[in-house]
Amino acid sequence: MSEPTFSIRAAAAEDFDAIQRIYAHHVLHGLASFEETPPDAAELVRRWRAIVDAGLPYLCAVERDGALVGYAYAGPYRPRSAYRFTVEDSVYVAPGQAGRGIGRSLLQQLIEICVRLGKRQMIAVIGDSGNAASIALHRACGFALTGTFEAIGFKHGRWVDSVLMQRPLGPGSATEPL
Questions:
Q1: By the number of CB atoms within 10 A of the CB, which of 71, 92, 161, 177 ranks highest?
Q2: In a structure prediction context, what are the per-residue pLDDT tens digits for the chain, which is 178 residues long?
């Protein structure tokens, strides 16, 4: 396999015009997100700050020429305190960039950081049971299928499933968290 032409780093405020373009494409043309109207860059910056203020990672993949080609983050799975050791991942790759290992690199680094943070479970909520690429990516990174909510959303004129996948982090549930 050839050397990747991109690197992974923490996202910064100046990345959000590019992040917004990537996310807007997925909102308007895909089923990975159940949002139907793309938020603007200012809203995405607000969401990013909430993630990083919670001490969680928000990463981006950047080409050698500086072009942002993907991003990923781990957000709280649910707001109640008992979920504090569980995170939900989100991974988005720029149009035309799939199949280059960008999503896998982002997700692997996200997992490594969350393990170091003491998180114990990572949840993937994948829009559309037909999203073979995302399901395969998560499976390759150690996630197992835990269930499917059938026809839970309606987007682009059709009913859409949510696929749930889960991966233990570090010792997972084998020991009590510190």
A1: 71
A2: 567 899 999 999 999 999 999 999 999 999 999 999 999 999 999 999 999 999 999 999 999 999 999 999 999 999 999 999 999 999 999 999 999 999 999 999 999 999 999 999 999 999 999 999 999 999 999 999 999 999 999 999 999 999 999 999 999 999 999 8
- Please enumerate in sequence order all residues whose Cβ is within 8 A of that of 77, keeping only pairs 6 or more positions apart, or say none: 83, 86, 87, 88, 121, 123
Distance between CA atoms of 106 and 94, rounded to whole angstroms?
13
Pairing of strands 6-10, 58-63: antiparallel
